[in-house]
């Protein structure tokens, strides 16, 4: 009963009378303001059946951080709330023309605004005052450091676009500005920010029901896009330089230069580069960015390039030193079909690697016979055993020359096979690198066209 009479007295006082002003003083009196402060626990409505609607708008000032591993977005907002306080009304003519006051927010009733995506405490500077005009309308500007949960997609990093939601809820809430106006204000302030830029700020209002309770909610979609110049300069361009050097290393002659040592040095340098730049790459358990896949594939291609060099070196030296003939199927597949496929033109000294010179053994025999004949005619005093010994020496010399000739032919044949394989693997290597480079370039062009 006492509570009923209390509200009845408050109702009569604020319905019939307004805030009192003292003659000779500006603004309402302290006593009348204190009476309002004593009612801060109650909603400021003379008739409790009348709703107190809170109008809300915000401006996105900065994107402070994006943590892909924990899926958290940290932003800085300037939140502005409007509502009507029916107890804070006065007549400006009676109050020396005062139409606006600033009052401590802790002494007044304030609406309960909940952000559903909030996952951490607000550590921003609090704004202690609200601004009230003589009609009872209040404006409260809040600086808000919003740490919110967001489903971050990093597959297209550093050309990614993130879409995060901010959901504001209360019993009676509505937007103070249109979503287009809020988006324009946010773009104007966020344009000077560092890594991120605002693409769009969209929103809608709806009603959320919990049993018999109904909550008004305003859902905002904040679409931000990363500026990739930093990552292109620090990651893609150095990686591209190393890959170009690795491609040019194929022009080193494999039979006279230690190409394998050069490629191993490149792989070591690329590994150190990835370790240094690892902090710039996002990490998450949900997926791997395509740039990480690109670096892994580039490293794998470098390893494949080194293995290709090892194979070519083995073909050029190991098989020829063992005097192994080139298999017939290798001649058909490599020297005929693959060479024709890659438009390979053999050098003049390797023009006929598979066709042996059949006249050379006959030449050796004729030269040996001539040498024996000359020896017999010029040295008539020599006995037959001496002539036989000379013939044996000449036969050994001929065998040695034939072995050198055979070794030279085998080296030419295996060298021909090695060069054909080297040209084939080089073209495959360049094709794979070009495909990955085109993917990155296309993604960058799409990012620029969306801007």
UniProtKB/TrEMBL annotation:
Q: Which residues form the Neurotransmitter-gated ion-channel ligand-binding domain?
A: 40-174
Asked whether the keyword Ion transport is assigned, the reply is yes
What sequence ranges are listed for the domain Neurotransmitter-gated ion-channel transmembrane? 235-360
- State its location(s): Postsynaptic cell membrane
Q: Which reaction is catalysed here?
A: K(+)(in) = K(+)(out); Ca(2+)(in) = Ca(2+)(out); Na(+)(in) = Na(+)(out)
- Membrane-spanning parts: 229-252, 264-281, 293-316, 428-449
Keywords, A to Z?
Answer: Cell membrane, Disulfide bond, Glycoprotein, Ion channel, Ion transport, Ligand-gated ion channel, Membrane, Postsynaptic cell membrane, Receptor, Signal, Synapse, Transmembrane, Transmembrane helix, Transport
Q: Name one GO molecular function term.
A: extracellular ligand-gated monoatomic ion channel activity
Q: What is this protein called?
A: 5-hydroxytryptamine receptor 3A
What organism does the UniProt record list as the source? Neogobius melanostomus (round goby)
């Amino acid at each position: 009963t006492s509570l009923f009479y209390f509200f009845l007295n408050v109702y009569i006082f604020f319905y019939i009378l307004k805030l009192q002003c003292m003659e000779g003083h500006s603004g309402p009196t302290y006593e009348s303001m204190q009476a309002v402060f004593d009612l801060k626990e109650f909603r400021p409505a003379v008739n409790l059946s009348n709703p107190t609607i809170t109008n809300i708008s915000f401006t996105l000032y900065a994107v402070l951080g994006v943590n892909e591993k924990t899926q958290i977005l940290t932003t800085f907002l300037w939140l502005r709330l409007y509502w009507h306080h029916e107890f804070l009304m006065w007549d400006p003519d009676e109050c020396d023309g005062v139409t606006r006051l600033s009052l401590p927010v802790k002494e007044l009733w304030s609406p309960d605004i909940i952000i559903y995506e909030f996952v951490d405490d607000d550590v921003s500077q609090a704004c202690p005052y609200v601004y009230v005009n003589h009609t009872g309308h209040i404006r409260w500007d809040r600086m808000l450091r919003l740490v919110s949960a967001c489903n971050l997609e990093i597959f297209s990093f550093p050309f990614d676009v993130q879409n995060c939601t901010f959901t504001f809820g209360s019993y009676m809430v509505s937007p103070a500005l249109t979503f287009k106006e809020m988006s324009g204000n946010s773009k104007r302030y966020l344009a000077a920010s560092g890594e991120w830029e605002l693409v769009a700020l969209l929103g809608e209002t709806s009603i959320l029901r919990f049993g018999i309770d109904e909550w008004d909610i305003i859902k905002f979609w904040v679409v931000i896009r990363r500026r990739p110049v930093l990552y292109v300069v620090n990651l893609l361009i150095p990686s591209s330089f190393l890959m170009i050097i690795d491609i040019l290393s194929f022009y080193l002659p494999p039979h006279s230069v230690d190409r394998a040592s050069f490629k191993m040095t490149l792989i070591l340098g690329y590994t150190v580069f990835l370790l240094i730049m690892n902090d710039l790459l996002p990490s998450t358990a949900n997926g791997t960015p395509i740039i990480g896949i690109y670096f892994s594939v580039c490293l794998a291609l470098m390893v494949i390039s080194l293995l290709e060099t090892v194979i070519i070196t083995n073909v050029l030296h190991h098989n020829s030193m063992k005097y192994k003939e080139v298999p017939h199927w290798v001649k058909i597949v490599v020297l005929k079909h693959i060479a024709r496929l890659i438009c390979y033109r053999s050098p003049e000294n390797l023009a006929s690697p598979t066709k042996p010179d059949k006249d050379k053994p006959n030449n050796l025999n004729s030269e040996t016979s001539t040498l024996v004949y000359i020896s017999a005619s010029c040295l008539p005093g020599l006995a037959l055993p001496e002539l036989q010994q000379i013939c044996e020496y000449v036969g050994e010399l001929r065998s040695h020359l034939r072995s050198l000739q055979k070794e030279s032919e085998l080296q030419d044949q295996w060298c021909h096979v090695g060069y054909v394989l080297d040209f084939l693997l080089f073209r495959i290597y360049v094709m794979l690198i070009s495909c990955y480079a085109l993917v990155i370039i296309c993604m960058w062009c799409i990012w620029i066209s969306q801007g």
